[in-house]
Specification:
Layout (H helix, E strand, L loop, with lengths): L3 H12 L11 E5 L6 E6 L4 E4 L3 H28 L3 H4 L4 H9 L6 H7 L4 H21 L6 H6 L8 H6 L8 H15 L33 H7 L12 H6 L2 E7 L10 E9 L8 E7 L2 E7 L8 E3 L3 E7 L5 E9 L2 E7 L2 E4 L1 E9 L2 E10 L5 E5 L4 E7 L21 H7 L8 E7 L4 E6 L2 E5 L9 E2 L5 E6 L7 E2 L5 E4 L21 H11 L6 H9 L4 H11 L6 H11 L10 H22 L2 H8 L6 H9 L1 H5 L3 H24 L13 E4 L8 E5 L10 E3 L6 E4 L2 E6 L7 E4 L16 H5 L4 E2 L4 H6 L1 E9 L1
Parallel strand pairs: 1-31, 3-6, 10-20
Antiparallel strand pairs: 2-3, 2-31, 4-5, 4-23, 5-27, 5-28, 6-7, 7-8, 8-9, 9-17, 10-11, 10-16, 11-12, 13-14, 15-16, 17-18, 18-22, 19-21, 24-25, 26-27, 28-29, 29-30
Helix pairs in contact: 2-6, 4-10, 9-18, 15-16, 15-19, 16-21, 17-18, 17-21
Length: 781
């Protein structure tokens, strides 16, 4: 009996539109660049299993197979990152190209390759050659070119190995937007206003650096940076908002030791939270097998290797460790000559680099890129004689996001794994560890600047006159790793995890503690845990923000009909943001659209409140603190002010939801508002809409756009590994492995994902053969 892919292939071949993602069932493909044959087996869930005779051919075949599934995504990522969009899309993309080029790695390439370990240059070179091999194959089979290229009227471009590492703007850099927001709030309402922006850990009070005028920081100071890090908007297409993704980025991961599992084997689970409104997803699942290397899991589509998964002995997962790796510098320009900025009592020249940006249908455009000693200039205020530059860890060797995973992929024990993490550069990451010997652990890593200067904590912009410098970086070994923690498990959810009094403070701004608290609660409740238990934890939708806010609501009453109905609906709410919950529809609308903004305008002057209420990721721990101790926040009689805030904002939310879901709250559903939809970059075909539960405080995460309710951030990839019994592991990757709309694996996992399901993450070849969908043999030409 033919597999469904084989049937689809037959139909598509008859139509002359065979998809790039399914080159053939039982096909043999001759490729330039291979030394020996490679077997490529695609299982029924679209996961490729690559079997090569050596790692040279393995990384080549990985590039080839990723290109089969994700060529338009790969090509777009490369063009966006290198500043080459105008070359194919025309002059309207020149500004974005210029912005991207400001943040390219321009340092020593020998040091760059060495920083990722001895295999990095080989892996990147062969990976790029594999992508090129597939592009060359398409040259002989133009009918299989992904349809996006035909729609847009250009061909996919060849890669160079350097393309893999020079691009930096896909890294996470959320600190800058908070620096600017904090400066604007301080300008509007004084130094104490920053208290309302975000809770700081360890306990700390942000100080305005000497020499900084917070009012000199323009609201649009990061517009060039935002262009550099933005996704691509295509003609008549859609885009994701990367600034929102950065500001809300997070993940869950945990390792449960053998003493707490039913099998006596460790369990490692991980669900990174990435953009959930773009198609295809930001992770790609694969198995890579060659003598001495057998990796299974997921990684960035544009990176060789596997960043999240296992190597047959060691399992590894990661979450974002929000190390502050970026700073905004403010310079005084020479009023008589804006090509110079003040530095340590003198005037230092701005470094200027001119590059020609190729433009489709027009002559190349010469663009000047300006740099200070700290980084690229992103804005000049001519009238105020000010310049603003962004300093990042991205200019350092070894800071291409997640490529440091090449260092740990051969580790066989915790000591080797820890040693391999010493060169990890970016982004800051919590690496969670388990192995088949029974060990579990945690290794934090990422370039952590040593900031020098009074009141230089990275929380506000700083003058660029030499008083605020980075004195190198802390060694990763200075960060607090754990090996076999006494409680028998370790969990990470981007939470504040530094021990009390720890001497190295990598950051003061962390994600809220509620996901971590709920994970700990659920793991502790099951002393004989299974993989299914970890899958259930990943689906958990109980909000500990809700359970702490709701008691203040339940104590209130109102004679206003809408307010009374709202109070009654929330009075019985258990805080579980399930897709079928009526109270969740009201609660989520209330806190995200009305409560936080009302809270800001109650406590702050209007200008500062406007800045705070426009922040993407409100800090509800501060709202909870203020409700718990109202006099300290609202002033004398604070409880009455708190209650008035609740009673004023609840009916607004009630009428909002009623206008969308109808007047009868009994018929409301949270999934009737919040939905997931994966949007194709060109606008079609999209996958969804799919009703969605969860919120940003739940383990099953869902950060939604407050106007559309479309999920922006979610866990599109999840895995739960049975360490040592690898074929019993589970995974999901929504909406499908392929980015080619013609492929059966374009959307085939969406319904399974939406239902909280998963598929077997297979490692043994016999099991792969049992679930085989497509067999391809790559042979040397």
């Amino acid at each position: 009996m033919r597999s469904r892919t084989a049937v689809a292939m037959l139909v598509l071949l008859l139509l002359g539109t065979a998809p790039a993602a399914a080159t053939g069932t039982g096909a043999t493909i001759a490729v330039d660049g291979l030394a020996r044959p490679v077997d490529l087996l695609v299982d029924e869930w679209g996961v490729p299993h690559v079997y090569a005779a050596d790692t040279r051919d393995l990384f080549f075949a990985q590039g080839f197979t990723v290109a089969r599934d994700r060529l338009f995504q790969l090509d777009t990522w490369r063009r966006r990152g290198l500043g080459l969009l105008s070359e194919v899309l025309g002059p309207s993309y020149v500004e974005q190209d210029r912005a991207a080029r400001l943040f390219l790695y321009r340092g020593d390439m020998q040091a760059e390759w060495a920083s990722y370990g001895p295999e990095a240059k080989l892996a990147a070179t062969r990976f790029a050659e594999g992508i090129n091999g597939y592009i060359d194959w398409l040259g002989k089979h133009p009918e299989s070119v992904p349809p996006e290229f035909r729609t847009l009227g250009y061909q996919p471009a060849h890669w160079r190995p350097e393309d893999v590492v020079r691009i930096r703007t896909h890294a996470i850099g959320e600190n800058l937007m908070w620096e600017v927001a904090r400066a604007r709030m301080v300008c509007a309402a004084g130094e104490g206003a920053s208290r309302y922006l975000r809770s700081l850990h360890p306990d700390h009070e942000a100080k305005v650096p000497a020499g900084l005028d917070p009012c000199s920081v323009p609201a649009d100071v990061l517009s060039v940076y935002d262009k550099a890090t933005a996704a691509v908007t295509f003609p008549k297409g859609v885009t994701t908002t990367k600034d929102i993704a950065d500001a809300t980025s997070g993940s869950n991961s945990w390792a449960v030791g053998p003493g707490r599992t039913a099998t006596g084997r460790p369990i490692l689970a991980n669900d990174p939270h990435r953009g959930a409104d773009a198609l295809p997803s930001g992770r790609y699942v694969a198995q890579l097998s060659a003598p001495g290397l057998n990796l299974t899991g997921a990684g960035e589509p544009w990176n060789p290797g596997i960043a999240i998964g296992h190597n047959g002995t060691v399992a590894f997962g990661l979450t974002n460790l929000p190390i502050d790796q970026t700073d905004l510098y403010v310079y005084d320009l020479d009023p008589a000559d804006h090509s110079r900025y003040r530095y340590r009592g003198g005037w230092e020249p701005i470094t200027k680099v001119t590059e020609a940006i190729p433009v489709h249908g027009a002559a190349a455009v010469q663009q000047e890129l300006d740099f200070t000693r700290h980084g690229p200039i992103v804005k000049i205020d001519e009238k105020a004689h000010k310049a603003f530059a962004v300093r990042t860890a991205w200019t350092e060797p070894g800071s291409s996001a997640y490529l440091g995973s090449l260092n740990y992929q051969r580790a066989q024990n915790f000591g080797q794994f820890s040693a391999s993490m010493q060169k990890w550069g970016a982004p800051g990451s919590n690496l969670v560890y388990a192995d088949k010997h029974g060990d579990i652990g945690y290794v934090p890593a990422g370039l952590t600047p040593r900031r020098t200067g009074t009141d230089y904590d990275g929380l506000l912009p700083v003058p660029g006159d030499g008083r605020y410098e980075w004195d190198g970086f802390h060694a990763n070994s200075e960060l607090p790793a754990q090996h076999n923690p006494p409680e028998g498990f370790f969990a990470s959810a981007n939470d504040f995890n530094l021990p009390p009094g720890y001497p190295v403070v990598s950051n003061y701004e962390w994600q809220l503690p509620y996901r971590k608290q709920r994970i700990d609660e659920l793991i502790r409740s099951e002393p004989q845990a299974s993989v299914d238990d970890s899958l259930a934890i990943q689906r958990d939708e109980k909000s500990l923000v809700a359970t702490q806010l709701l008691p203040f609501v339940r104590a209130l009453s109102s004679s206003d009909p809408d307010t009374a109905k709202a109070l009654e609906l929330l009075r019985g709410y258990d805080g579980v943001a399930s897709v079928d919950s009526a109270p969740a529809a009201l609660y989520e609308t209330w806190i995200m659209k009305y409560l936080h903004s009302g809270w800001a305008h109650t406590l702050l002057p209007a200008d500062a409140a406007d800045v705070l209420s426009q922040t993407i990721n409100p800090d509800f721990s501060l709202v909870i603190d203020s409700f718990t101790d109202p006099d300290a926040w609202f002033g004398t009689g604070g409880a009455a002010a708190r209650d008035k805030l609740i009673l004023d904002t609840l009916p607004l939310a009630f009428r909002d939801v009623a206008g969308k879901l109808g007047e009868d709250p009994a018929k409301w559903r949270w999934g009737g508002l919040q939905y997931a939809q994966f949007d194709h970059p060109l606008g079609s075909p999209n996958v969804g809409p799919t009703p969605m539960g969860g919120d940003y405080a739940t383990i099953h995460p869902s950060f939604f756009h407050p106007l559309t309710y479309q999920q922006i951030i979610g866990a599109t990839f999840k895995m739960a590994l049975d360490v040592g019994n690898w074929d019993a592991s589970r995974a999901i990757n929504a909406p499908g492995q392929s980015g080619d709309p013609r492929s059966p694996h374009y959307r085939d996992l969406n319904d399974l994902w939406a239902a909280g399901g998963s598929f077997p993450l297979l490692s043994s070849r016999s099991e792969v053969e049992h679930h085989l969908d497509t067999r391809i043999r790559l042979v040397p030409r």
